[in-house]
């Protein structure tokens, strides 16, 4: 084996990859530590720590207080609405007593142990969580039914229950919070997951196992044209000898260049790339702003993972727009209660919405908060664009003016009037009126997108 001086970049990279590969081969549920891995593989703790961070980013391990670092299974986005027992422990500030091998299992439902044992067992099954106090007679029964246990009120399980939990690989957790508080915290977290499921990421729409058409440093313009004819594509990422994206080769770059010149001499350097966990909407915005049709997806070291085209991200946004709602965001909850006012806005294409300022919308002075009013005006503009153009927009700028405060319980009308709408941009004037006439006004400019 070729030898390198201690601390050289090549040695660090080799050891880093060796540690990540070692972690990947460990059984799911194995508890590991930086110090133990460093000793086992005879590397420095600093090198092991960097590899741990890379493994955590890749979804191979998870590190949590009171639990430690555990080898986990890479979570799938399809099950994003399902909480794992580890996440429950984090949500309720829980302590793990036993069953660590099952800490990454997902739970389909939770059951509050406030009924008689016989009735409770009808609701408990695999992939469920029993939330219960110091009812020792039900702890064993719940584990035997395939359920994890969360003890509330600061109670802790006895040694027999911990031993059974380890044997069955079902987590037993405890928390200082009461049962009602714990149920509310878990329910809110599951609801948040439903909202997140609506948000499509690049990693949801690309196939990382499908090899992308690429060029390499050292290839020539002549080889670019050959790849162009073979694939029908005119834009390719250029990779160095370690698989990192160092440029983009396009027909514009190749035009007029000698066939035998290297692509690294004429390519566009420092190309725009994206991480796999950014949203499709963000990718659309970037590609439209920069005028590019192909976006390389890279890891933190700029190694190529996949490529995505503008058509693919637009198709994904159209698909997302057709899906049923699975949860309401804060903005959507604020807009609840506002309805289209059919008597206004017929002549100038504006749309008016009427609703009430509720107590939950108040700010520090007992009036409607300025931030909330800005949100309502933006929501009115977005609804108008969706209704009239069947499109959506990415916000560029909002200039807002507040003329007088609006008391809570006030009935208001929000009018969105288009000043300019084109294929690329839109400008909208939004006004809020209460019984004292005009209360707030905004001018909104945005880039138009087509999710439908």
Automatic annotation (TrEMBL):
Keywords: CBS domain. Gene3D superfamilies: CBS-domain, Hotdog Thioesterase, HprK N-terminal domain-like, Winged helix-like DNA-binding domain superfamily/Winged helix DNA-binding domain. SMART domains: CBS (SM00116). Residues 208-265, 267-325 form the CBS domain. Coiled coil: none annotated. InterPro entries: CBS_dom (IPR000644), CBS_dom_sf (IPR046342), Diverse_CBS-Domain (IPR051257), DRTGG (IPR010766), HotDog_dom_sf (IPR029069), Ser_kin/Pase_Hpr-like_N_sf (IPR028979), Thioestr_dom (IPR006683), WH-like_DNA-bd_sf (IPR036388). CDD domains: CBS_pair_DRTGG_assoc. This is CBS domain-containing protein.
């Amino acid at each position: 084996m070729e030898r390198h001086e201690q601390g050289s970049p090549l040695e660090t990279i080799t050891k880093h990859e060796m540690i990540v590969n070692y972690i990947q081969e460990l059984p799911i549920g194995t508890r590991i530590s930086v110090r133990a891995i460093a000793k086992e593989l005879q590397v420095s703790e600093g090198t092991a720590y960097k590899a741990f961070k890379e493994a955590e980013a890749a979804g191979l391990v998870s590190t949590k207080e009171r639990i430690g670092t555990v080898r986990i299974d890479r979570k799938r986005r399809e099950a994003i609405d399902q909480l794992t027992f580890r996440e429950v422990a984090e949500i309720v500030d829980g302590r793990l007593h036993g069953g660590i091998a099952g800490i990454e299992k997902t739970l389909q439902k939770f059951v509050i142990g406030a009924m008689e044992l016989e009735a409770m067992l009808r609701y408990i099954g695999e992939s469920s969580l029993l939330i219960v106090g110091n009812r020792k007679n039900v702890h064993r029964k719940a584990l035997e039914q395939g359920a994890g246990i969360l003890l509330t009120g600061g109670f802790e399980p006895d040694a027999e229950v911990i031993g059974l939990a380890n044997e069955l690989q079902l987590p037993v957790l405890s928390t200082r919070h009461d049962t009602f508080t714990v149920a509310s915290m878990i329910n809110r977290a599951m609801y948040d997951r439903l909202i997140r499921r609506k948000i499509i990421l690049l990693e949801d729409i690309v196939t990382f196992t499908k090899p992308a058409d690429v060029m390499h440093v050292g290839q020539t313009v002549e080889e670019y044209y050959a790849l162009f004819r073979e694939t029908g594509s005119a834009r390719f990422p250029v990779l160095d000898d370690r698989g990192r994206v160092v440029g983009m080769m396009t027909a514009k770059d190749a035009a007029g260049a000698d066939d035998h010149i290297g692509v690294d001499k004429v390519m566009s350097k420092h190309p725009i790339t994206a991480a796999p966990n950014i949203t499709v909407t963000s990718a659309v915005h970037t590609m439209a702003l920069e005028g590019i049709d192909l976006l390389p997806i890279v890891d933190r070291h700029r190694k190529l993972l996949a490529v995505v085209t503008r058509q693919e991200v637009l198709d994904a946004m159209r698909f997302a727009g057709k899906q049923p709602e699975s949860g309401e965001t804060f903005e959507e909850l604020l807009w609840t209660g506002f309805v289209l006012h059919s008597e206004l806005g017929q002549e100038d294409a504006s749309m008016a919405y009427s609703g009430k300022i509720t107590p939950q919308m108040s700010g520090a002075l007992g009036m409607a908060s300025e931030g909330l009013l800005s949100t309502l005006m933006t929501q009115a503009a977005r609804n108008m664009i969706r209704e009239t153009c069947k499109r959506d927009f990415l916000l560029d700028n909002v200039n807002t003016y507040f003329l007088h405060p609006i008391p809570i319980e006030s009935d208001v009308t929000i009018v969105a009037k288009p000043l300019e709408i084109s294929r690329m941009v839109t400008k909208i004037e939004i006004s809020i009126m209460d019984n004292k006439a005009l209360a707030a006004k905004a001018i909104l400019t945005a880039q138009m997108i087509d999710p439908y």
